[in-house]
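Side project, low priority. Logging it here so it doesn't get lost.
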Amino acid sequence: MTTDGRQTSPASRPPGRAAALALGCLFLFILSCGDGGEPAGGPKPRPGPESFTFFDIGRNSMFSDSMRRELAERLGNDAIEYRSIIDLRINYTGFLSNHLPELDAINRQLNDPPGERVDHDVIRLMYRYARRRNAPFDYVELIFDGQSRRPLVFRLRFRVDETGTVESLREKYGAPETIRWKADGGESLVWRKERDVLAVSLVPDQFGTPVYHISLYFTENLEGMVASEQASKNRTLREHSQPKKSAF
């Protein structure tokens, strides 16, 4: 398999019309990984440049019921969580600190105190049956801030790059930063735009077969969540430190 995964066997491709639908769906994904606008039917986003988007959902979008319905039409039924941890780590221990230190710093703030489970107010959508809708993904996870309703982290996973996703990203955004792992034979390609990060990693499974992992980080929105949570903690501390008034 080449780096962009385009050498695949004919048996791995869906036949007939399903193949055409899968190609079209992934083409939509490539198109929307750019200067996208607001999601159809959703609230108007704040002014400002977009970075990367997935199905027209970008850093300026806000989660809505109509957005969820549109995603269900494309990716099938979701599982949803409203309280959850946020773990930004990918690939292997130390990858963020070595190659994406700005995200490692945010991850440490989101998981403080270390070693304890820290739940956050989020909206986490998980799609495990997207292929039933002819979408070429084995797993999709979209995490939004429960307060601002802005996107925080998107993750996608698939085994075969059926339509040359990586090559299309190279053509659209230019040469990425290439990070070859010292162990396990993995590799990551990293693009940055408007401080946001798009990482495509080829992660070997237990049999050594590379699996494509796409991680999309909305850095400004993640920083906004950290700041909002810290402000809330500070307010709570001030309230608890104020002297109690006597009832008499």
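Brief comment: DSSP finds six helices and eight strands in the chain.
Revisit when time allows.
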